[in-house]
Amino acid sequence: MGASIKDVAAKAGVSIATVSHVLNGTRPTRQHTRDRVLHAVRELGYAQNQSARNLARGRSTLLGLLVSDVRNPFFPDITAGFQDQALAHDMDALVLNTNYDPQRTLNSVRRLIGLQVPGIAILTSQIDPSIIDMLAERRIAAVYLDLGRVGQSISNIVLEYEHGIVEALEYLTQLGHRRIAYIGGPMPLKSAQRRKRAFLETAAHLGLNAAQAIDADFSVKGGYFACSKLLNGSTPTAILAGNDLTAIGVLHRAYDGGLRVPDDLSVVGFDDILFAEYTQPALTTVSVPRSEIGKAAFQALWGMMSETEQVGREFRVGTSLVVRQSATPPAEVHKS
C-alpha cells in the first residue's frame, strides 16, 4: 500500500492538518514547514486523494476541455496551451473529443456537470443551444469558440478568420494571380461559413469576378477531390484552402496530375499546422496561434471563476500570413 497523509505528517514532524493545509493551500504556512512537508511527500511517494483535496478547497480542481477532433493537428497546440495554464494554476484538465457530433458534445457536458467542474472550455462549433443555458443556469463558467455573445458565466473567443483570408488573397493578387479558387469546409460549421464569405467578398472587392469557391470537409481527402473538380474546369493559377489539411490534399492532387507547385499552380493554406513547413514545397499559409487559443480559453474560465458575478469577456485571436515556397507569380507573369 502507498504512503498515507499520516505517514507524511510523521516523517515531517507536523500534524496531519498542517500537511493538508500545505498540499491544499487552505492556510498559509511557514516556508521551512512547507519545505519539510514537501520533502516528506517526495521521499514517501505520497499521492494525494483528489476527492479529499476538492473537499478541502470547497470546489473541484478539474476543468473540462471539449475539442472537435483530437486527431486533427489543429487541436494539440490548443490542448497543450490550456493544460499548461491549468497546471500553472494548480488545476487539472479533462479533455473530451466530440467528433463534431452535437449529441456527443451534450453527453460530454453532462458528464462534466456530474463531476462538478467549475469551468468548461467548449472549443467546437457543433453545440446544442441548450448547453449554453444549462451551464449558465448552474453558474458553471464556460468559454466558447465563435459563439458571438458574452454574458454571465459566458465568455467567447473570436478568431479573426476574415483578416487571414484577406491577407492571403491580397498576397496572391500582388503576385499577379487573377484566377484564384477557394476550397472551404462543411457549411454547418460557422468557421467555414465565415472563411468562405470573406473569400467571396474580398474576391469581389479585388475584381476577381471569375473566382470559384467550392465546399469540402477540411480533410486531406476532401481537398484532393475538390481540387480534381477545379482542375476539370477552367484551371485556376492559384488555390486558397480553408485549412492546411485541405491544402495538403491539393498538393497531392497537383502532383498526381503532373502540375508543379508553385510553377503551374500556387497553393496557400490556413492554420499553419506543424506539417505545413515540411510539405514539398513548404506551404505558404495563414498562421493561427493555437496555443494562444488554449491560453485564452483558460484565462476566460479563470477570470469568471475568480469573480462572484462571473462576468464573461470576449477574447480576440489574430492571424498572420506565413510566406514559404508554395506560391509564386503565375506563368504568364513570369513570361511577360
Strand content: 15-25%
What is the SS-derived class? alpha/beta
Rg over C-alpha atoms, rounded to the nearest angstrom: 25 Å
Q: Which sequence of strands runs across the widest sheet?
A: 2-1-3-4-5-11
**Overall shape:** elongated
Could you explain the architecture of this structure?
The protein is of the alpha/beta class. 45% of the residues lie in helices and 17% in strands. The strands form 2 sheets. It has a 6-stranded parallel beta sheet with strand order 2-1-3-4-5-11, with helices on both faces. The chain has helices at residues 5-12, 16-24, 31-44, 50-57, 75-88, 102-114, 129-137, 161-175, 190-205, 220-231, 244-256, 290-305, 331-335, and strands at 62-67, 92-97, 119-123, 141-145, 154-159, 180-184, 212-215, 238-241, 266-271, 284-287, 314-317, 320-322. α8 packs parallel to α9 (190-205). The model has no long low-confidence stretch (mean pLDDT 90). The protein is built from 13 helices and 12 strands. β1 (62-67), α5 and β2 (92-97) form a beta-alpha-beta unit. The protein folds into 3 domains: 5-57, Orthogonal Bundle (434 Repressor (Amino-terminal Domain)); 62-159 and 290-318, Response regulator (Rossmann fold, 3-Layer(aba) Sandwich); 161-288 and 322-335, 3-Layer(aba) Sandwich (Rossmann fold), CATH 3.40.50.2300.
